[in-house]
């Protein structure tokens, strides 16, 4: 890798018009999308939209043992939930389908036949045992241990002998005997030497096409112009470039080799690449916890890119406008769950109350706090509560605990035992008795008169500190030590329920 001047837009586009940009996101539908997958999809999506190009969704579903229709639908639903809309692919259609690799097997077979006929690929009859022996001998001699080209120039007699032995060949690409250099949009100029690039397998002996074949073939046929993918795939790039060149020779695709950009690793704990098994790696966890799609995407965008040195929170429209693949950092990015949650909380605070309430409903319904279709009165109460909790919540899964007390009937209302044990002790009985009397005399049931009455009664009248004065009241009406602001909560709950719950809490205390 060498230093190079920062590329211009013209360099990035490689002679294309901006609206000719075509990128792809090729997930394998195994029922799990990781934050690393999503970050790659996001950068491709932002790149395509920045230039007015197209994002192609192509499904790598050739592994029948791991891929199911349900997993495919989960993948599509997840990308839809995230708002990463694709221009071509399943459900969207397009001129370059089918977009499921399992439906393209005849295409791959046809391409391989043409590569063989043109001499750009060949049959290799080496057994695994023979390959292992020759590799070990090469290592012992201090030589490169990749494939040694043993079957590159077999005579017809040698081929016939292998066939008579019952050997089933793999298909290998004939790599060029020269260095392969390309200008990576993230990492600069990279060169791979031929001694490190052995002829690699395109098709297994059972006829099964492999990833290094199907992806470049699909890219060529779908006229993909830019490939933005993970750093872990960098070693395969020179082999794929050689295949693009071979495909161009036999008339497959447009003849253009895509521009590559290899995105940095997303690191987890212990300075290791984030694994799909690590906590916080899977998308489902964020959906379950009530993250906003835009909050999660905002944070993932920061894993290798930034909109400005002094700014972390932005919308996806702002990202599209500002996104520049040249400014992606090649260094690994560390995933920080706490910062991810903080970015999400910032987006929650940007929502209008009605929007916030609508997004909270599914989580309140799942917890049994509200019906799936709340009444107008319930929605109105929820919306009125929003300004008092937006600053206190990081995800929507916190909504039932924070707001549930507003919607449960007084008959079904209960106080958290731990909160009762820690707060409803000592002078709590006297506090609640004074609270009931003070609130009974409040005229207009609004926050300001409620606060004035309680401060006069509990702080001035009983001489208590605010924590000791208001803690028992909070637990009595909300059931917990943590709730929306106390005086606003009393107003939202209403006079009758507030007085009833205070009396119920006082009555539950043990007699002196």
Automatic annotation (TrEMBL):
SUPFAM superfamilies: An anticodon-binding domain of class I aminoacyl-tRNA synthetases, Nucleotidylyl transferase. Its EC number is 6.1.1.17. It catalyses: tRNA(Glu) + L-glutamate + ATP = L-glutamyl-tRNA(Glu) + AMP + diphosphate. Pfam families: Anticodon_2 (PF19269), tRNA-synt_1c (PF00749). Residues 20-339 form the Glutamyl/glutaminyl-tRNA synthetase class Ib catalytic domain. GO terms for molecular function: ligase activity. Catalyzes the attachment of glutamate to tRNA(Glu) in a two-step reaction: glutamate is first activated by ATP to form Glu-AMP and then transferred to the acceptor end of tRNA(Glu). Belongs to the class-I aminoacyl-tRNA synthetase family. Glutamate--tRNA ligase type 1 subfamily. This is Glutamate--tRNA ligase.
């Amino acid at each position: 890798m060498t230093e190079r001047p920062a590329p211009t837009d013209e360099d990035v586009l490689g002679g294309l018009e901006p609206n000719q940009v075509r990128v792809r996101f090729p997930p394998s539908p195994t029922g799990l999308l990781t934050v690393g997958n999503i970050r790659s999809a996001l950068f491709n999506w932002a790149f395509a939209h920045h230039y007015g190009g197209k994002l192609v969704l192509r499904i790598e579903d050739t592994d029948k043992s791991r891929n199911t229709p349900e997993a495919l639908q989960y993948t599509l639903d997840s990308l839809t939930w995230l708002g990463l809309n694709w221009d071509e692919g399943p459900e969207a259609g397009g001129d370059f389908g089918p977009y499921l690799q399992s439906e393209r097997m005849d295409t791959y077979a046809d391409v391989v036949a043409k590569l063989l006929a043109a001499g750009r690929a060949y049959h290799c009859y080496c057994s695994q045992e023979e390959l292992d022996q020759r590799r070990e001998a090469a290592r012992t001699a201090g030589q490169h241990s990749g494939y040694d080209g043993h079957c590159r120039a077999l005579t017809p007699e040698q081929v016939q002998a292998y066939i008579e032995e019952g050997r089933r060949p793999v298909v290998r690409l004939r790599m060029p005997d020269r260095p392969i250099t390309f200008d990576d949009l993230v990492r600069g100029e990279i060169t791979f030497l031929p001694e490190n690039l052995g002829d690699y397998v395109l098709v297994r002996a059972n006829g099964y096409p492999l990833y290094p074949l199907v992806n470049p073939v699909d890219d060529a046929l779908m006229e993909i112009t830019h490939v933005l993918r993970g750093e872990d795939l960098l070693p395969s790039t020179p082999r794929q470039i050689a295949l693009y060149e071979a495909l161009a020779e036999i008339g497959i695709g447009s003849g253009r080799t895509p521009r590559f950009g290899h995105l940095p690793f997303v690191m987890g704990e212990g300075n290791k690449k984030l694994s799909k098994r690590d906590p916080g790696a899977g998308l489902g966890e964020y959906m379950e916890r009530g993250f906003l799609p835009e909050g999660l995407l905002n944070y993932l965008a920061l894993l290798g890119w930034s909109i400005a040195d002094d700014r972390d929170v932005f919308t996806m429209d702002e990202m599209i406008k500002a996104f520049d693949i040249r400014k992606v950092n090649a260094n690994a990015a560390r995933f920080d769950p706490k910062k991810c949650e903080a970015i999400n909380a910032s987006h929650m605070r940007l929502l209008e109350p009605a929007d916030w309430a609508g997004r909270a409903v599914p989580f309140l319904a799942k917890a049994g706090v509200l019906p799936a279709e709340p009444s107008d009165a319930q929605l109105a109460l929820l919306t009125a509560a929003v300004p008092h909790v937006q600053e206190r919540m990081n995800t929507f899964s916190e909504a039932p605990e924070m707001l549930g007390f507003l919607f449960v009937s007084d008959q079904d209302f209960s106080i958290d035992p731990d909160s009762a044990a820690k707060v409803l002790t000592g002078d709590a009985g006297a506090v609640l008795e004074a609270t009931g009397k003070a609130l009974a005399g409040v005229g207009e049931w609004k926050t300001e008169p409620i606060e004035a009455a309680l401060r006069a009664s509990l702080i001035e009248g009983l001489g208590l500190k605010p924590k000791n004065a208001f803690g028992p009241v909070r637990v009595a009406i909300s059931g917990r030590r943590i709730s929306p602001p106390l005086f606003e909560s009393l107003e939202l709950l209403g006079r009758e329920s507030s007085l009833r719950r205070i009396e119920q809490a006082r009555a539950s205390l043990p007699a002196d």
